[in-house]
Amino acid sequence: MxxxxxxxxxxxxxxxxxxxxxxxxxxxGLRSLFSQAELTLLAKGTVAELFAGYTGLxxxxxxxxxxxxAGLAGKWTLAGTLRQYRFDLAVLFQNAFEAAFITWLAxxxxxxxxLTDGRAVFLTDPVAVPGPHSLTHQVxxxxxxxxxxxxxxxxxxxxxxxxSEEERKMEERLASSxxxxxxxxxxxxxxxxxxxxxxxxxxxxxxxxxxxxxxxSEEKRTRTAVVILGAKGEESLGTDIAARIQGKSVVLSGAxxxxxxxxxxxxxxxxxxxxTGPMHIAAACGVPVVAVFGPTDWRTTAPYGQEQAIVxxxxxxxxxxxxxxxxxxxxxxRVPADRVYEASLSRLYSLSGLSGPDQTDQTDRTDKTDQLLxxxxxxxxxxxxxxxxxxxxRSPDQFELFPGVAQALAKLVRAGARxxxxxxxxxxxxxxxxxxxxxxxxxxxxxxxxxxxAPLDALYVCPHHPDDSCNCRKxxxxxxxxxxxxxxxDLTRSYLIGDHxxxxxxxxxxxxxxxxxxTGAVLPQQVEGLKASGLAPDRVASSFDEAxxxxxxxxxNRSGIPGGHQMMPT
Length: 570
Prior knowledge:
By secondary structure, the chain is of the alpha/beta class. The protein is 37% helix and 15% strand. The protein contains 20 helices and 18 strands. It has helices spanning 17-33, 45-50, 71-83, 97-105, 138-144, 164-176, 202-220, 235-243, 258-267, 277-284, 298-301, 330-333, 337-351, 362-369, 405-414, 435-451, 478-487, 501-510, 524-532, 544-558, and strands at 8-12, 38-43, 59-62, 89-92, 110-114, 125-127, 184-189, 224-228, 249-251, 270-274, 289-293, 310-312, 377-380, 418-424, 458-462, 494-498, 513-517, 539-541. A six-stranded parallel beta sheet has the order 3-2-1-4-5-6. It has a six-stranded parallel beta sheet with strand order 9-8-7-10-11-12, sandwiched between helices. The protein has a six-stranded parallel beta sheet with strand order 15-14-13-16-17-18, sandwiched between helices. α11 (298-301) links the parallel β11 and β12 (310-312).
């Protein structure tokens, strides 16, 4: 396949919310493979809502299989709609016969997907399915379908974004139910649309939530609220659990859209859940999860990147993958509330910034690292490093930080670092947006970081076209030179964090320590190319949080305080 000839790509999304979330890294991979192409997602209504505003897509089309697109006549109508877009390629993450048939009916010349469900006749580019005994996580399953197209390496964790407006509206809704913005929110997701076999016992959900709320209120003097989530039809389940909880609880079961579910999930400090779609949404929004697994296979559907959050009882009949248990439901009834409670406390203390009573060395660690980065400057790339990179961001509504970035930067600021953003924005010279529109985007960036306790010391921009031969477009050193002049930066005490080859080249030019984050479009083969060319970064990190942790460790070693921060794994 000549990738340069592919201008318009149709992507068929999986039908289930959890599968759609686990497919998100593959969407990013597809965008990196066809960076100049127009990507259109075809999805059923709930999944289409999940990806509303997703920066890696040009549009989302809704497949209404219960209405306008029902039956053969509806498929013909949908095919006619798709035909109008003149797609060059269809990539099918949905495995059903129907997905391939519709794209064939729409006359899309290249149809690419796994060879499943007897659809070989409708695929021009079939991909062999992993063997039946291959225990591949679903995130990797979707990622690997793209390997024949040139995608390599391991997938990143799924990431979803919620707009600031959606967050504000949810705060208002929770406030109307008595939940203050300062309250620590514990989320409970006790249902499952897949079937009752996946459901842990309601009274145990209630017990864990009650004990957590009481512990936090007593030990931390922090007000807590329990928010109960669920789909339509699970309202009585939510009400039953709320009746067992003393203190503030809010039942939102069956009362949220998908976007509202995402917003309230992101508001939670912790989500306790069965193996469900909201579990994957929480993990993709950077929310710590404790998930009770029973009949489903934890090896293939655990929240990616939070596999240690699983609580399960290893009975002989699990995983059976059945919707209803034909015997005594032992995989769930044998999971006691104590185990889930202890796992929840551990997750709160380790991932949510809540200091635990057993962390006796916390004060000593803080004393050692409090000013560890005093005198250090951290240079930061913008797109692909701090925020998703859809190509060009034209307005503040398109701009959101990656989950966890603001918190990681706040940690560096607390250690004494100064933060400076250096970014190429050739969209100005290309006429895609004005300086004023760029400044509006950066005003939002400054606000988001400031609210998180990570204010920028400066922000330097190259607005020129790549053909202008200016001295400020990275990897040239003009932006760093300006920072040295205006901010008295000591380059011997500096780091540069970026997601692109040019960032690593710039770091070498100015003598900064370098960290390459793989959250952007960088491919594994490019990392190998950097090593071969002598531009290898000092660290390759899969997330911004990992980059910050390594930076603190590295600075501690350079300052002679190797114990000042936990060493990152190699």
